[in-house]
Amino acid sequence: MYIVMIASECAPVSKVGGLADVVDGLSRELSNKGHKVEVILPYYDCMKHPAVKDLQGNSVQVSVPCNGKEILSTVHRAAAHDNECFFIKPQSPERYFDRGVYYGKGDDDERFTVFSLSAIEFLLATGRRPDIIHCHDWQTAVIPVLLKNKYKHSALSETKTCYTIHNIWHQGKTTEKILKMVGIEPSAAAVKDNMTDDSDRAYINLMKGGIAYSDVVTTVSPKYAEETMTNQMGEGMQATLSKYSGKYTGIINGVDYDSWSPASDRHIPFNYDADTIEDKYKNKEYLRKKLSMKQDFKPIVSVVGRLDMQKGVHLIRHSLLYALNNGMQFILLGSSPDTEIDLYFHHLKSYLKDNHDCHICLGHDEELAHLIYAGADMILIPSLFEPCGLTQMIAMRYGTVPVVRSTGGLSDTVFDAEVSAKPAAERNGFSFDDFSYDAVSLALKRASMVWHEKPYTFREIMLTGMKTDYSWMASADKYISLYNKVSGKW
């Protein structure tokens, strides 16, 4: 099967969040399974050029009709992390991707619409006829709209589209100017019905259009698929997703075990696996020494990731203090885009600077992240919502037991050691339901009690997590089944 991924990010070249890891990991696994996969990306001036091989070679130019005129887009062919990639650079006065950032400009809607339009014209101009075009998030949601309207009689008319929602919060709300840019009449009854934003009729919603016009819609976990069809989690998209529920499904993301495996991780001093798990504790000792923490008979609770409202930042703050007051140590590695949250944690770091049961690192440190996964006993993820989450799956690979709020992908991957309906052999962590101080405190208390009082049970929970396969292999098979079904291959 011939599959083309079109996205705004792909690790390691251009990465802001989990989208980049999904595009990279899924594409490589599909290739490993014998499918032809190409990835189309924007040519950002700020992307990691050293991660790309022979970027300037094999370039072509395509003419892109936009706003009643022609824009030339240069497309560079290159390899990145074993993926065959094409980088699109529109040659326009707006310099859409020469901004020094990936997102956050006032004309992001225009930037990614021009990119999406250029991607389609590139496929047509070079005679590419994929079986599947797989689009991701609002940035490429206009592609299914274009293929079912402007390009419905083109050579891509038989190509099917898969559209994946990574985060329902970001939907691409814009004005009708975007449709006019690409030559679609916004007053057409079907287009108006399929793209007008349900919360504000003065706007169009690119994600809504992607859902309506794609052949199959996915999101990044089965639980998140359910949640996004509810008023509590749908962010205004619940009616549209419910309408198209017959083509909507959730597939768990995978983890790149080439990068995240304690047996081969070059960032940790002592490699180990499930058979040599005792060496994990050598990493724990090393971690404490590196961070000037006490060598004591206490569990280490850790947090690795972004500090914002989605991640339950107030529960993280509460848990840190709860842990220190209840016989646990705490390590936090993360940063916040919110100035107020960032300032609070800097104050907290200063206040706790002499506490040798605690370490707060505000920023990004790749090597330290790996060492925390290897050395900590538990990882805390008290998210308000979590479409999928990779943190808990990475932690389990390292034998670090997740303590999570049961939502989205966390609910699909972490099964409580004491109260889950799963068989004991599948229970791999601790979870709580309520988004509250009491709930997270109780979960930490239960985990700590098992660590102290039932060390054999805690060891079994660790080993269960280590042996669970959350690689891309199974998830890629599910995508292949969807591709086959929608393209009529079976």
Describe this structure in words.
The protein has 490 residues and is α/β, with parallel strands linked by helices. It has 2 domains: 2-254 and 473-487, Rossmann fold (3-Layer(aba) Sandwich); 274-470, Rossmann fold (3-Layer(aba) Sandwich), CATH 3.40.50. It is 36% helix and 19% strand. The protein has 17 helices and 17 strands. The chain has helices at 18-32, 108-125, 142-148, 177-181, 189-195, 206-213, 222-227, 238-243, 280-290, 313-324, 339-351, 366-375, 391-397, 408-413, 437-453, 455-467, 472-487; strands at 2-6, 36-42, 60-66, 69-80, 83-91, 132-136, 160-165, 173-174, 204-205, 216-219, 248-250, 300-306, 329-335, 358-362, 378-381, 401-405, 430-432. The strands form 3 sheets. The chain has a 9-stranded mixed beta sheet, sandwiched between helices. Strand 3 and strand 4 (69-80) form a beta hairpin. Helix 1 (18-32) packs across helix 17 (472-487).
Task: Supply database-style keywords.
nine-stranded mixed sheet; 490 residues; elongated; alpha/beta; Rossmann fold; 17 strands; six-stranded parallel sheet; 2 domains; 17 helices
